[in-house]
TrEMBL record:
PANTHER family named in the record: METALLO-HYDROLASE RV2300C-RELATED (PTHR42978:SF7), QUORUM-QUENCHING LACTONASE YTNP-RELATED-RELATED (PTHR42978)
Molecular functions per Gene Ontology: hydrolase activity; metal ion binding
Pfam family, one: Lactamase_B
Domain of life of the organism encoding this protein: Bacteria
Chain ranges of the Metallo-beta-lactamase domain: 47-247
Keywords: Hydrolase, Metal-binding, Zinc
UniProt cross-references to InterPro entries, sorted A to Z: MBL_superfamily_lactonases, Metallo-B-lactamas, RibonucZ/Hydroxyglut_hydro
Residues of the signal peptide: none
Cofactor(s) recorded in Swiss-Prot or TrEMBL: Zn(2+)
Species for this entry: Rhizobium terricola
Family under the similarity heading: Belongs to the metallo-beta-lactamase superfamily.
Identification of the protein by name: N-acyl homoserine lactonase family protein
Length: 282
C-alpha cells in the first residue's frame, strides 16, 4: 500500500536528498526533447544528474553518470566527474556500499569502477534487455555504452549486483519502483524526506514538460508503457511538486543550493521547490 500523504511517516527517519549536476548538453531543438515536436524550434538544454540520499551513516547513491570518454564521444560537456561531485558533499565514491542504477544507459551507469565496494541495484528486465538479442539492432543499443556493460558484467561476476523485479523497499523510507518505457527496466526511486515522499523519476520523465504534455522524450523502448509511467509517478508522489525529473535544468532553479559554494552544482530536494510544477513545465 503506497502512502500518498505528504507528511513523513511516523517512525521513519527522513533522508537528506540531493541532486548533483555533473554535465550538460546545449544547442538542442524541440525535436531532441519531445517525440512530437517541430524540429525547427529550439529546445531546452539537458542537465545530467546523479542523486544522493543520506541518513546519518546510511548512504545511497542513485546512478553513476558518465566520464570524460563518453563526454567526448557524444559531444557532452562534462563539468565534473560524478565521484568529484559526491566529494563536494563529503562522500567518497570508493567507500559507498549501496548504488541504485535506475537503468543502464550510458549517462546513468558509467564510472562503475569508481565505486569498487558498492552493491548495485538493478531491475531484472533492464539487465536482460541490455545484454540480449535487442542489442543486435544498432539503434536500440545507441543509448548504451559497451564498456559500461562490460563493467556491469564484471560486477555481476564479482557478486555485486542485486536484481529486483518490480517494487522493492531497500530500507525504511527508501523504495525502488519499476517504471519501464524509456528503457525496458527503468526504476524510479521514492525517498522519505522532511517534506514527505519525494520521487526521483530519473528518465521516466526527462523534463517536467514531457510528463505535463504527455509528450515523451524521443529515446524510448515502449511509448505506451512510458505514457502509463506518468500516471504511476503521480500515484507514487503526494503531489506533482514531489516528482523530480531526470534531466531538466529547471531543477537547479526550483530547489535551493546545498550551500553558497555549491550554487549551480548541488541542490536539496528535501526542501520544497520555490516554483510550482505548472511554472516549471511551461
Amino acid at each position: 500500500m503506497i502512502d500518498q500523504t505528504g507528511e513523513p511517516n511516523a517512525g521513519i527517519a527522513p533522508f537528506e536528498l540531493y541532486a548533483l549536476r555533473y554535465a550538460m548538453h546545449g544547442g538542442r531543438t524541440a525535436k531532441d526533447n519531445f517525440l512530437y515536436a517541430d524540429p525547427h524550434e529550439s529546445g531546452a538544454n539537458l542537465d545530467y544528474f546523479i542523486w544522493l540520499a543520506r541518513r546519518g551513516d546510511e548512504v545511497f547513491v542513485i546512478d553513476t553518470g558518465f566520464g570524460s570518454n563518453a563526454a567526448k564521444a557524444r559531444g557532452r560537456t562534462l563539468l565534473r566527474d560524478p565521484k568529484d561531485a559526491l566529494a563536494l558533499l563529503g562522500v567518497e565514491a570508493r567507500t559507498v556500499s549501496q548504488v541504485v542504477l535506475t537503468h543502464l544507459h550510458y549517462d546513468h551507469a558509467g564510472t562503475l569502477g569508481d565505486f569498487p565496494v558498492a552493491r548495485f541495484h538493478l531491475q531484472v528486465d533492464e539487465a536482460g534487455h541490455a545484454t540480449g538479442p535487442c542489442m543486435c539492432d544498432a539503434k536500440a543499443r545507441a543509448p548504451f555504452d559497451v564498456e559500461n556493460i562490460v563493467a556491469y558484467i564484471r560486477s555481476l561476476y564479482a557478486g555485486r549486483i542485486e536484481f529486483h523485479r518490480g517494487d522493492r523497499e531497500l530500507a525504511p523510507g527508501f523504495w525502488l519502483h519499476a517504471v519501464p518505457g524509456h528503457s525496458a527496466g527503468l526504476q524510479a526511486v521514492r525517498v522519505m524526506t522532511e517534506r514527505g515522499w519525494v520521487v526521483l523519476a530519473s528518465d521516466a520523465t526527462h523534463f517536467y514538460a514531457n510528463m505535463e504534455r504527455r509528450n515523451p522524450f524521443p529515446v524510448l523502448f515502449d511509448e505506451a508503457a512510458l505514457i502509463r509511467g506518468y500516471s504511476r509517478l503521480t500515484e507514487l508522489a503526494p503531489s506533482l511538486d514531489h516528482i523530480v525529473p531526470g534531466h531538466d535544468p529547471a531543477v537547479m532553479r526550483a530547489y535551493p543550493a546545498a550551500s553558497t559554494e555549491l550554487e549551480g552544482v548541488v541542490v536539496r530536494l528535501d526542501v520544497a521547490p520555490s516554483l510550482s510544477w505548472e511554472e516549471l513545465s511551461r
